[in-house]
Fold:
Amino acid sequence: MEIIVIILGAALAGFVQGLSGFGYSMTAMALWAWTLEPTLAAALAVFGGLTGQIIQAFSVRRGFDWRMLWPFVLGGLCGLPLGLRLLPLLDAQLFKTVLGVLLVVFCPLMAFAHRLPRIADWRCMQGVVLHIANGAAGLAGGVMAALGGFSGVVPTLWCQLLGMARDRQRQVIQNFNLTMLSVTFASYVATGFVTVRMLPLLAVALPAMLLPSIWGGRLYQRISDAAFRRVVLGLLTLAGLAMLVSSLQHR
Structure:
């Protein structure tokens, strides 16, 4: 049963990530959090998200603008150690509660962010102030990356609020996620968070998400993903509500 759940979560998450450029951990965790222990789920999510970002770096090339990216990356690198300190403190029910809150709060925001005011139009949001704000979004992304690979949630929402064009946003988030997830997984390995027992399960998740990720990336290049993102984010919101109800029932 555990292997089946891992395969289903990895395949679905790989497709969503390939299409939208984010959401691997959110999608996979919506299934994995029910049956997998938090440490295993986090390791699988970071590993799968990192693999997907590597695939997308080759199959959905969107360039590289270091001037836009560096505040996000610097903030993310500062947030990673905090997230790594918090991760061992999460028990199974607290993990589901935290994940449920993340899904319920951020998924609707990401679905309707295009209707919110464009922060980039504010006169104060220029130059150094914009860099600081981008760094703060990256900081939150770094903390959430360490907690289970959720690196793209806050930066994606922030890019939406800035009113970035789709391809420009994909460029920022894709490169940011690749950096954060690489450092996070290396930290997991270095600290012994990834154990020998997990290696066969990581090997199961890898082929399960490869083709769906490629298919999602190809679909991204052909159609608008706005309607699909709304459906996915709506389903993830419902999954988050279910996790919150389940976690509260056990308290």
